[in-house]
Design a protein that fits this description.
The complex is a heterodimer of chains A (about 120) and B (about 110). With about 120 residues, chain A is mainly β. Chain A has strands spanning about 5, 10-15, 20-25, 30-40, 40-50, 55, 65-70, 75-80, 90-95, 105, 110-115. Chain B is mostly beta strands and about 110 residues long. Chain B has no helices and eleven strands. The chains are: A mainly beta (about 120), B mainly beta (about 110).
């Protein structure tokens, strides 16, 4: 079965360190989302891309977060420097935008980030 | 700004009971609405998708309805089973497929 692959599954790091999370979207999906999930805020949209172009990253703290799609098979989310408040589960999701209205969103298993 | 609310936040029912989960959204200009299931420590799995032009969708024991004019969707689960225990989230996609907004979820526990 096609699936969204995220690495690493778990990451523990110290405050101030750089963190890079990777996502391989489902082949053929042209839209990729990054979400952050916490108990307090639920699922927050950080950024999303269509055809590798960033459409919106207004949900990200610009001074420390960056998101890119170097190619159609890889999306990255970087945090530099990391802070304890960044501790959360980060999800990548992909979907096929066709304009038909029936495009489902497929999620990866997430990266559990703990910043000490 | 689209806001999505789910009530109740948590629900506990005995096995076999039929139940309804609610989702409300503030902007009716939507493209579609999806219901997801999330198991602890896992990602989200899409259960049902209702397009803007549709009123409901069914999959097995699940039925989702959509009333855009009132900004509401419901997920009906028939004959609940312990395996249905999970968090259920609804997500609204606005026109243009941008900024898919999620509700905070309803945590369901089905007691054997």
């Amino acid at each position: 079965d096609a699936r969204v692959t995220q690495t690493p599954r778990h990451k523990v790091t110290e405050m101030g360190q750089e963190v890079t999370m990777r996502c391989q979207p489902i082949l053929g999906h042209n839209t990729v989302f990054w979400y952050r999930q916490t108990m307090m805020q639920g699922l927050e949209l950080l950024a999303y891309f269509r055809n590798r172009a960033p459409l919106d990253d207004s949900g990200m703290p610009k001074d420390r977060f960056s998101a890119e799609m170097p190619d159609a098979t890889l999306a990255t989310l970087k945090i530099q420097p990391s802070e304890p408040r960044d501790s959360a589960v980060y999800f990548c999701a992909s979907g096929p935008w066709t304009g038909g209205g029936n495009e489902k969103l497929f999620f990866g298993s997430g990266t559990q980030l703990s910043v000490l | 700004k689209q806001e999505v609310t789910q009530i109740p936040a948590a629900l506990s029912v005995p096995e076999g009971e039929n139940l309804v989960l609610n989702c409300s959204f503030t902007d009716s200009a939507i493209y579609n609405l999806q219901w997801f299931r999330q198991d602890p420590g896992k990602g989200l799995t899409s259960l049902l998708l209702i397009q803007s032009s549709q009123r409901e969708q069914t999959s097995g024991r699940l039925n989702a309805s959509l009333d855009k004019s009132s900004g509401r969707s419901t997920l009906y689960i028939a004959a609940s089973q312990p395996g249905d225990s999970a968090t259920y989230l609804c997500a609204v996609t606005p026109r243009g497929y941008q900024k898919v907004t999620f509700g905070t979820g309803t945590k369901l526990q089905v007691i054997p």
